[in-house]
Design brief:
Radius of gyration of chain B: 31 Å
Number of domains of chain B: 5
Mean pLDDT of chain B: 85
Number of helices of chain B: 42
Shape of chain A: elongated
Number of domains of chain A: 1
Strand order of the largest sheet of chain B: 2-3-4-5-1-6-7
Low-confidence stretches of chain B: 85-92, 677-686
Oligomer: heterodimer
Radius of gyration of chain A: 15 Å
Number of helices of chain A: 2
Largest sheet of chain B: 7 strands, mixed
Strand content of chain A: under 5%
Distance between the termini of chain B: 76 Å
CATH class of the largest domain in chain B: Alpha Beta
CATH architecture of the largest domain in chain B: 3-Layer(aba) Sandwich
Largest sheet of chain A: none
Structural class of chain A: mainly alpha
CATH topology of the largest domain in chain B: Rossmann fold
Number of strands of chain B: 18
Structural class of chain B: alpha/beta
Order of helices and strands of chain A: HH
Strand content of chain B: 5-15%
Distance between the termini of chain A: 13 Å
Chain lengths: 64, 815
């Protein structure tokens, strides 16, 4: 059974991972803004952002 | 088989460590079941027995098939040589055996004794009953009547009660009036099926509710048994009138309002509850009377009137109609009593006779007692056999009321003579100082309490000891050495048990101590105010004869202080004090040296007065916290917190401080870091760093707390929880608390709620919510993923991750 610090540590790490995911996603957004936005590129960007976050969360989960 | 323990045996058991006192309990409960093995009788003394377990001995008498414990303790302390000598060739020491049969020159049947309610369901259900019984003086709630008390009332029941239906019992302090009132009420209800109404002041009601006999009746068959205050009684017999009866707070508030509105403040100044009673007893009553002149004459003869004449004259400025107007639709106590007298309520429906027993009558308004007499007569006329017993002592009046036995015109009172409070030697010594005041021409001996006659003291006791010092500094050194002696005395000072330790603290009566100046851990200092109303087995009267106010005031104070001990009194005084008072007052004392004095006074322990713990709640809390400072909290911590009525938010605050102390310096270090860092920065970026430091710092402390946890008995659930909380192991604490789930839901709920609050303070809001689920509180709906986490066990982060992954990406981003 985890103690409170271990739980707090893990939550912080999860937050870091999500932050990293969001940072990655923001980069994708910036790239998308540079090109002309059409429906297909918007869908593509959305999928990429989701993937980045999902990867980070999966990484976080695998660590706990 | 019932087991009684005489009071003198308690001070021996209280001296024992917790573990040894438990062995004594095992012996006693074994005896009650007839199962204890090592039992020897004494040849020629068929009633006397001793039972042994290791070095511990219990000496007891068989009395009509029941057991009376006379002594308990270590071999040397309980005259075991006498019992073992049967197997040897030496002759028996008859004197010692005789003393056991007739301790202090009084037959055992006349010693105050208490029954262990071993067969009560309450006793069997509650934990630590024996501990509470011994060290917290709960034994006093299981008294048995002495043979003298029993005989007196048996005679009354057989002969007197049928001829006269109103009886007075007037007797001095320490004679056991309340015990008699309570036990006789129980007996009449239980054995004769009488409708019994016990009417007492609020403080006595609270005490009586703890009596095992009363608890038993209330559990089994409470119909026809009633206990309460006078206002409760009015509500019981006349609900309509009772509903209009003002509380004492309402009475006081109304009187204050009148003073304010009518601009009477300059002469009346602060109006107190004492004024409310004086006003009703002397001003309002005269106004209500049909014969104001006669009433005026009666009042002027009343001692309370004479003592408060000036104040009453000022109170006369308040017109009754003003006060009544302020009270609105509420009625004051005097008016309710007057109405009850003029229109008594109908009698109870029961066929059995009714008996009204009033304790501490001296603190009732005369009109209230007259109302009771009128009600009794009215019920009798309506063919409902009704009796009235009034118990009280004019000399123990604490309320400024017009009570007077004479005005009740009820004939000659019965008197309880025997004094169970102070030994003969102590009374003889203390009475000298009261006599001084009684002989003072200013008082003319008129209204002063008559001292108890030493010849009726049940215990002979021991001579008062006198320890003389040439200076007050040297006297103080004695206290310091006494403190050290108790601290290092082993058996007498069990460091893990607060109550046991407190019972063994030496009680020092000191008129004007500067408490901040002296730090004693094994001595309890009580000034006159704190000491009043308390009693202990042994006390030190320390420098009480120093110049302090007028001689008359001093005399009362000396008398009050010197009558606190039951059996042993050590007077520590300087030569100057003795010369000032006069050495002749101390001729009856035995002079001893400091070593003898320390050893003599520490031989007796006194149970802990729970009211002292409650009255000095800050001190109690601080003393309990001191146990946490070294990482070894008192094992009876929660037991004491409960006795001292520390609960709810105050209990949580105490726990927070205890956790801080248990965590020690590491915590203070971390708090300093936290203050240095910007809160957000600290939370988001440096939390990991912070966590690492915290973990390192606390690791060492955690190890010692872990060791401590291993030493705390498994049934001490709340304390184990506290240690786990101090180790930041909240979920382990929840698991520990869950052992209360079926046996003590209230404490389980409190612990779970406290753990949740701990987690909130650490910003672990999800975990706090998950903990609260255990007591039926759902996770708030506005918590993201609440439905995915609700009622799931396991790691929070895993659950959160899974919940996030379960979201239908990438569509989730649209929301």
């Amino acid at each position: 059974m985890q103690n409170d610090f271990e739980i707090a540590g893990q939550l912080n790490l999860l937050w870091e991972k999500i932050s990293e995911g969001i940072t990655g996603a923001n980069k994708v957004l910036e790239q998308v803004r540079e090109v002309e936005l059409d429906v297909s590129s918007a869908e593509k960007a959305k999928a990429e952002i989701a993937e980045v976050i999902e990867v980070e969360i999966s990484r976080a989960k695998s660590e706990f | 088989m019932s087991v009684k323990i005489i009071r003198a045996a308690f001070r021996e058991i209280q001296k024992l460590s917790y573990d040894n006192s438990q062995i004594v309990y095992q012996i006693i409960s074994g005896l009650s079941q007839g199962s204890h093995q090592d039992v020897k009788s004494l040849q020629g003394y068929e009633k006397l027995w001793r039972t042994r377990d290791g070095k511990l001995r219990v000496i007891w008498e068989r009395d009509s098939g029941n057991i009376v414990v006379i002594k308990a303790g270590f071999r040397g302390d309980v005259y075991d040589s006498v019992f073992d000598s049967r197997d040897r060739t030496e002759p028996l020491e008859i004197e010692e055996i005789e003393e056991l049969k007739e301790l202090q020159g009084t037959t055992l049947a006349n010693h105050p004794a208490y029954e262990i309610p071993l067969e009560d369901t309450n006793w069997n259900q509650e934990e630590d009953n024996w501990y509470k019984f011994i060290y917290a003086n709960y034994y006093r709630y299981s008294p048995v009547l002495t043979s003298y008390q029993k005989q007196l009332f048996d005679e009354l029941m057989q002969h007197g009660i049928w001829s006269t239906k109103e009886w007075l019992v007037q007797s001095a302090p320490g004679t056991g009036k309340t015990v008699c009132a309570a036990l006789l009420a129980c007996e009449l209800h239980r054995d004769r099926g009488w409708n019994t109404m016990l009417i007492v002041p609020p403080a006595v009601r609270e005490d009586l509710e703890n009596y095992s006999e009363i608890k038993k009746i209330r559990e089994q068959n409470s119909e026809g048994f009633w206990l309460g205050t006078f206002p409760d009684w009015v509500r019981e017999v006349n609900p309509e009138l009772g509903a209009r009866l003002a509380t004492s707070e309402e009475e006081l508030e109304a009187l204050r309002e009148v003073v304010r509105v009518k601009h009477l403040a300059p002469s009346l100044e602060e109006v107190s509850s004492r004024d409310v009673l004086l006003y009703q007893a002397f001003v309002l009553k005269r106004e209500n009377s049909n014969q104001p002149n006669q009433e005026n004459y009666n009042q002027r003869r009343n001692a309370i009137y004479q003592e408060n004449e000036n104040r009453i004259e000022i109170l006369e400025k308040i017109r009754p109609e003003w006060w009544r107007e302020r009270l609105g639709n509420r009625l004051c106590n005097l008016d309710v009593a007057t109405q009850l007298k003029s229109a008594p309520p109908p009698p109870p429906c029961q066929n059995q006779p009714t008996i009204l027993i009033v304790d501490e009558s001296q603190d009732f308004l005369l009109a209230q007692l007259k109302a009771l007499i009128a009600v009794r007569k009215a019920w009798e006329i309506q063919k409902h056999s009704t009796y009235l017993w009034l118990l009280g002592d004019l000399n123990q009046r604490i309320q400024p009321v017009d009570f007077d036995w004479g005005q009740l015109q009820l004939g000659r009172p019965i008197e309880l003579k025997y004094n169970y409070r102070n030994s003969r030697h102590i009374l003889k010594f203390a009475n000298q100082f009261l006599e001084f005041a009684r002989e003072n021409p200013r008082y003319g001996g008129r209204h002063l309490p008559k001292p108890s006659d030493p010849k009726y003291a049940v215990e002979e006791g021991e001579q008062v000891r006198l320890l003389e010092y040439s200076s007050s500094e040297l006297a103080l050194e004695f206290l310091e050495s006494l403190d050290l002696r108790v601290k290092s005395s082993g058996e007498g000072q069990d460091e893990r048990y607060f109550l046991q330790q407190s019972a063994n603290q030496v009680k020092v009566l000191w008129t004007n101590p500067d408490e901040n100046q002296y730090e004693f851990s094994s001595i309890e200092i009580l000034n006159a105010e704190k000491a009043k109303g308390r009693e202990f087995d042994a006390c030190v009267a320390f420098r009480i004869f120093e110049n302090n106010g007028t001689r008359l005031e001093e005399s009362f104070q000396w008398y009050t202080l010197l009558t606190r001990p039951r059996s042993r009194l050590l007077v520590v005084a300087t030569t100057e004090e003795l010369e000032r008072i006069g050495r002749n007052y101390f001729e009856c004392c035995e002079t001893i040296d400091s070593a003898q004095a320390a050893s003599w006074i520490t031989e007796f322990a006194s149970g802990v007065d729970i009211n002292l713990l409650i009255d000095n709640v800050q001190k109690t809390q601080e003393r309990l916290l001191k146990g946490c400072d070294n990482g070894h909290p008192y094992l009876d911590t929660y037991f004491v917190l409960n006795l001292a009525k520390i609960e709810s938010e105050i209990l949580y605050q105490w726990e927070q401080e205890a956790i801080n102390r248990l965590q020690g310096v590491a915590n203070f270090y971390l708090l300093a870091i936290a203050k240095l860092l910007n809160n957000q920065y600290f939370r988001l970026l440096d939390c990991h760093f912070h966590t690492l430091i915290q973990q390192c710092r606390l690791q060492q402390r955690s190890n010692s707390l872990q060791e401590e946890l291993e030493n705390v008995p498994s049934d001490n659930i709340s304390l184990r929880c506290l240690l786990l909380r101090a180790m930041n192991c909240s979920w382990q604490a929840v698991e520990e608390a869950s052992r209360f789930q079926n046996s003590n839901w209230k404490e389980y709920k409190r612990l779970v709620e406290s753990i949740a609050q701990d987690l909130e303070h650490k910003d672990l809001l999800y975990e706090a919510a998950r903990v609260r689920e255990k007591i039926g509180q759902p996770i708030p709906k506005d918590f993201p993923f609440s439905d995915k986490i609700a009622n799931r066990s396991g790691s929070l982060v895993s659950l959160l991750c899974q919940a996030m992954l379960d979201r239908p990406f990438p569509d989730a981003l649209d929301k």
